[in-house]
Amino acid sequence: MYQDGDLLIGGLFEIQRYLKVFPELSFRTEPKLPRCELFYMTSFQQALTMVFAINEINNNPNLLPNITLGYQIYDNCLRLGVAFRGATALVSGTEETVSDLNCKGAPPVIGIIGDPGSTHSIAISSVLGLFRLPMISYYATCSCLSDRKKYPSFFRTIPSDAFQVRAMVQILKHFGWTWVGLIYSDNDYGIYAAQSFHQEMELFGYCVAFSEILPNDNNPIDIQHITRVIQSSTARVVVVFSASSLLIPLMNEVVLQNITGRQWIASEAWATSPVFRTPRFQPFLGGTMGIAIRRGDIQGLHDFLLCIRPNNDQRNDIVRIFWENIFGCSFETEGKGTDGEQVKKVCTGQEDLSTTNTPFTDVSGLRASYNVYKAIYALAHALHDLMQCEEGRGPFSGNRCADLTNLKPWQLVHYLQKVNFTTGFGDHVSFDKNGDALAIYDVLNWQPSADGSIKLHNVGVVNEGAATGMVLTLDEDAFYWNFETTKVITYEC
């Protein structure tokens, strides 16, 4: 997606997924090539939240007056190569010729919002850090990204896993669950979180009954092995660090094998995922406890989302793809587009979004989208502070100020490090010396609803302040348990 402006902000979101299906090794059929099969409505909402925030800032006379922000947004398709290529295009531009041989002027983008993945952020920030171009992730939580020497221009509006792991162990300690299983994804997010989890458990004298890695290739042999481990273990509490997309094959197998009576504890990457909150999963995942990133309200976002319309601009083709997915139609008029053997209806572009019921228009639990919103405003406030500089009183060599016509990325990083503001929802936004956000989480409990699906209930808060340390507040009367808590087995290590 693209919109012109005096200064551009780049964005990286995981809107579609190129699904690599584990091939059938029968030598009778040709393996399927990776293809785009999934469109994430929640991720597209996050991308549109970036657009909404920029439009809101452009209409605010008190923030960045006389400056119009634009954007350039890429879909990373959940693949590192695609994400890195998008980031490279954002920071270097896509023009084939260079018009200014002196290399003066602002960079193609003044900063990047994203990437949501820790592995992607590590790779991209390693390069962006060389040029001190600011990158603010709204979802990358790997504690490794707090290393200012390796990632000098990386910021995030989500707490690092170092805080999340401590929050999880606080919950285990509260309920006296000392014997737990651990499952984690085979990427930087899962591996670093698992290492921290083992260390925190040892610190309290608790035990990890088993530790299993989720396969990235959906290999059914690996998935069945993990379910056998879960079934045979006496541990009834299972902690999982993984994105929901990598967890789907395992949970499908949990249903097939009828594995019940487990207390699942979800990391923030899947604690709010709508994928598992269906009647099919309720008997198995009801009662799940999750660590969730802070929820917030964004006034006006719902109406904005309902006003989105596709157009013929190829730079905004993702809106057309979204439209085809949500309405089950096609803009291809020749043959009217096909879906297998079924003929799709033709999209008119005038379909009514208010008649749909998807996570895209659901703004009741804005978490990642709220982080995107805060990230955009952090960049805007940093840029605003930079523009307020009085010549002769600036923070740079010789008391100079930054020149907006020849803006250096590291100058914006300087102001971003000092940013300090409050959102309309009342949350304070600032960064510590490592670029990390204030650590605060909601504690969620998955409870059955009248239609048999699962609804999220906020049952507590975990807040870590510099003076108070980790503080856990739980409303135990509000919990739903899917098993008898007295049957949770504990061991002395």
From TrEMBL:
Q: Name one GO cellular component term.
A: plasma membrane
Where the protein is mainly located, per its record? membrane
Among InterPro entries, the record links this protein to: ANF_lig-bd_rcpt, GPCR_3, GPCR_3_Ca_sens_rcpt-rel, Peripla_BP_I
Which stretches make up the Receptor ligand binding region domain? 47-449
- Give compartment(s): Membrane
Q: Which UniProt keywords apply?
A: Glycoprotein, Membrane, Receptor, Transmembrane, Transmembrane helix
Spans traversing the lipid bilayer: none
The superkingdom listed in its UniProt entry is Eukaryota
Q: Which GO terms describe its molecular function?
A: G protein-coupled receptor activity
What topology does the record note for this protein and the membrane?
Multi-pass membrane protein
Protein name per Swiss-Prot or TrEMBL: Receptor ligand binding region domain-containing protein
